[in-house]
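Holo model, (2S)-2-hydroxybutanedioic acid. Inputs:
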Amino acid sequence: MFQSLQALPADPILGLSAAFKADSNPRKVDLGIGVYKDEKGKTPVMKAVKQAEEMILKSQTTKSYVGPTGATDYNETIARLVLGDSLLDRLGKRRITVQTPGGCGGLRLAAEFIGKANPGATVWVSDPTWANHKPLLGSAGLSFNSYPYYDYESNSVNFVGLLETLQQVPKDDLVLLHGCCHNPSGADLSSEQWKAVRDTALQRGFTVFIDLAYQGMGRGLEEDVFGVRMLAESLPELIVVSSCSKNFGLYRERTGAVTLICDSHKSCATASTILAAAARANYSMPPDHGAAIVQLIMNTPMLHQIWNEELTVIRDRINRLRSIFAQRLKDAGIDQDFSFIEKEKGMFSFLGISANQINTLIEKYSIYLVDSSRINIASINDTNIDYLVSSLTEVLSRK
Ligand code: LMR
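Output:
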């Protein structure tokens, strides 16, 4: 039976990591996968996480199952992190949160849920969007359409195009937005633009679905959820998938959640049975370790403070690197204007270079980046920046 199978191409992001690992060039630079790296190029375990793990190791008394919807206290903690205390209280039983195996598990669970509410639903995704959105949601049977998002000429959000398209979205469709730190472009919506999206959603009646993978990595923990909270406050229904991979550095622990806002307590009660059944049918229940860490950090003032400080260091470093990199490219005398990099948020920006130039960077210079020209800003450091800037200068001068 297995002989009939055809091999699939490597994943556009994970395949790059494998190629990078196999490259023996000592000057190689990995600007591919979206993983935070410190000045030494390492992705360390956060101190708050280490301390929480030690406490869990000492105090945990059972490894018994947690159940398909995960740990109730973790779910409440995540809802507070995403929505904030006062909104959470106002939403009351119109909101449910379910623990998931990472943000990807959350997206998949949300897709299963959407498929039950509206079989074959169409999800409108930003053009461009994260390379795994369509495979992940599509494998649960959802269809896609897209709205314009990034304008490669002005290096900013094409908001006119976005809004014109959203004004045509049918009532039963969904619109997938990135909560902050848009992946892959780094270009986020302004407060005014979020308001216009909200008004359009209210007017058209489509359902908004938010992927929130980078809370705290852009402007700040509160600032990064401005749009999410505004929509949660005003829309009758909302789906938010959040991840602790980046802001807690818990990548491999697979720690995430789906939060639903429903039009009534009753719909929420029904929705939670659908989510529980979908989790059970897919993976039975989420892994516990990462969620237990997050729960402990968020509810132990000393750990919370350490975590918040560490996250601030990460965010400030990314934003500082953005300014330094843009300035260094300017100083190198490259024709192209890269000043937009400084304004964008989160780990990613597009270099806006051609497929040939990307290939040359990979093949000749061992500088790995995604084929859309997306780079991970957090991979830049004092050791590789000269090499990066000089290689880019050479490649760009060739056209
Ligand atoms: C990325 O976009 O690089 C990250 O979200 C990691 C991944 O799974 O693709």
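Residues 13, 33-34, 130, 132, 183 surround (2S)-2-hydroxybutanedioic acid (CB under 6 Å). The first strand starts at residue 29 and ends at 30.
Archived with the compound record.
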